[in-house]
Design a protein that fits this description.
The protein is of the alpha+beta class. 46% of the residues lie in helices and 21% in strands. It has five helices and six strands; from the N terminus they run ααβββααβαββ. Strands 1, 2, 3, 4, 5 and 6 form a six-stranded antiparallel β-sheet that branches. A hairpin with a 2-residue loop joins strand 2 and strand 3. Helix 2 crosses helix 5. The protein starts with 6 loop residues before the first helix and ends in a 27-residue tail after the last strand. About 5% of the residues have low confidence.
Length: 245
Amino acid sequence: MRKGLTTGQKRLILILAGFLILLGTFFFVFQKNQEKIKKLDSDTNEKKSQVEYLSNLQILVNEMKQTTEKAQQETLTNTQKYPCKMTQQKAISNIYNLSVAGGVRLRAIRPTAERTFYKDGKFTQLSDEENSEETEGEDTELSEVEKKPEQKVSVMEMVGKVSSYEVELTGTRKQILKAFDWVSGNREPMSISAINLTFDNSTGKLTGTIALNFFSLNGNGKPYVEPDISSIVLGNKDVFGTFKK
């Protein structure tokens, strides 16, 4: 009786062992590596997405930076259109220039209380009620910006003021319209908020009042320039009789 395994049996065992080794390699090495590869691919795609997002975000940041710088420059430019303060002397000088530009005749100039239209970075609505409240509270303590309107502060600290004058005048339709055009085309911000004119058949002229508003911006850093009033003739028979140079 022969002892041991036959050659065929040995070959079969070797083939089986090789198959088991190959199977173990597949499950324990190849498949495990495949899982790592999939995870790496997933991580890589995630990183690519993050890089793409950050790249797009950087583009938006650059665009916003340019837009912000442009907006800041426009804001600074717009603040320089306003005088830092509006004195009665300056307002009356403007009203006189309006009368000269339009050729209208002034009958009376009546100033009203100064009001605030911009403060703490916000615009406020102007109304007659607010006007009366500010008239009653004239003793209210002014802020540092209002006390020193020519100093330079941030936009959020600036204080916008509007000085209103009721102007009684008379003139032809053409003269009145020329005066209005002077207001709308003036380089300093001003407006007409009310018009109450009637036509006189006997003279062919319009007579009545307009509400003329002059705007200033305390704290914009723009030096105050005294108006040239040398051309204004002062006398007892005109509306400037009580006005002093």
